[in-house]
Amino acid sequence: MPSRIALSRLAIHATLIAFAAFWLVPLLVVALNALRSTEDIAHAGVIGLPHELMWSNFRETWSSYCISQHCDGIQPYFWNSMRMVIPATIVSTLLGALNGYSLSLWRFRGDNVVFGIITLGVFLPEQIRLVPWVIVLRDLGLFNTISGLVMIHIVQGLSFTTLFCRNYYVSIPQDLLKAARIDGAGFFRIFWRIVLPLSPPILIVTVIWQFTGIWNEYLYGVTFTAGEQQPVTAALIALSARLSDAPQYGEQSAAVLLAAAPTLLVYLFGGRYFLRGLTAGAVK
Amino acid sequence: MSALAIRDVWKRYGAAPVLKGIDLDIDSGEFAILVGPSGCGKSTLLNIIAGLDIASQGTIEIGGRPMNGVAAKDRNIAMVFQSYALYPSMTVRQNMTFGMECRRVPKRQQIDTVNRVAKLLQIEALLDRKPSQLSGGQRQRVAMGRALVRDPLLFLFDEPLSNLDAKLRVEMRMEIKRLHQRLGATIVYVTHDQIEAMTLATRIAVMNHGEIQQFAEPDTVYHRPANLFVARFMGAPPMNTLPARVTAEDGRLSAMLDRDGIRLPLPTTMNAGAYLDRAVVLGIRPECIAEHNRRFEDGAVLVEAPVEMTEPTGAETIVLLRLGGHDVLGRVAPDIRLKPGERARFALDTRKICLFDPVTERRIE
Q: CATH second-level architecture of B240-356?
């Protein structure tokens, strides 16, 4: 009997490791190519070990690689993404917390309908929303600006952040609110002093979720911005579309890694809290 | 002076009424207890008094001031919750000062008040701890402390002891009573535990189905219950109720149990003449059924009845016997060893017998 259990254990682990390896292969190929020279890749094929470590790929791709006539590397686009992702993440998370707080703890007539409409946004495909956003951005004069993208990501992020926060806050006992109301606290004071201090687990989840989603977003980036205003995801495409000479896989791979670094780092440092926060209740 | 006046308060959720015309007057310094089974509307009534819920109809006055449209924070009340509802992210001290902070009480005065109340409740050592670091009993104390820093017109307690274990509950019960005697505060206290009601209250309001069944001193509620519901709800174990018939013998009225013809003379103060030869429901408390040689003044009635079961509690033994074809509980001295199945003689104290109208279920005066 024990040996049979051990055997099935082994089978499970072998399967899991195989799938994990399969998943990691693309990352591995990109990581290896980022350290290979273009000649090496052209000579030995896309899959292979580096002959010598070309750390210069990273430096070049960061600051001097040419993307659509600008030879500043991906650096400016990387900072564009930062200027987009930081305000969009903070504002959408705070507004989502405020929404979730009022929807879960200050029940009003029709609150579930409002909640339903907000969360409908989670299920709407991006493509459907393109045309309305074109009109909004045009009318507000925010076409081809980072601010326009920030606004889009705040509004669209609200669906997710509201959903997360509302479902977290419903586990806060109503008695806590009643006690605070008798103590004389109003809507915002209760939010700041009582609800927000209970929120770090869910705020970490929404911040990671929003940061990753907004950083990796591509469709709006290429649709609503061009040239110097593009976020790094859109710039990556422009970079690979350089038709004039042979594909420079080494630099391009380095660019991909650099563009992916922030979300990878967020996951490495925050992933633990993310998983913990998703399963946590507000008050035990 | 009336500290709290409730006039014809109704509460409906949709079509279903939860409170059906509640009228109550609670005097200043009174410890009033709302007691009843779950779902009787007692917590809803408390929330309406607090301003946390809105009555569908009727008025509430606190300290003579009408409270319709007045927010909870402006009613000059303090409330202690069953779950304690301590703010988890604040220390005990912050929990106690939060209300004063909202009301912009000067810092100096906040500190003095917290120190005074902490001393009164003996929680000085806990002031810098978070609620999660406290035991159930300590949380309970802090919850009371948070109410006491306010010095309100009215304290509201919503089942404050029901999350404590049995031993702690008895301790805290005594402590709350002592606190009330010391502060002379007006308290409205909700509980489903009729022992808490009996031990703490100056007056008890027994509620059922959204109505007040009786509002009176504990002694009156216990010995002269207004109706069958109150008789069966109050007391542990509750009052025995048996079908009987009023008969007259030698010019004195007695109640004859339906099945075995046992006659129990009625107290002379009772006006049961109108019920002569009519069916009634007889109520007798378990402590009025004792072992045969117990001395009751004014003569006891001796009956013989089969013993069904016994429950020794140490201080006394609860005995289940058959009387008038019904199961009836009695309380006998602990050293009496009765065996299930045997017939035994019991002494019945008839002075506190109650009779109820079988249709209206009201007690016959």
A: Beta Barrel (2.40)
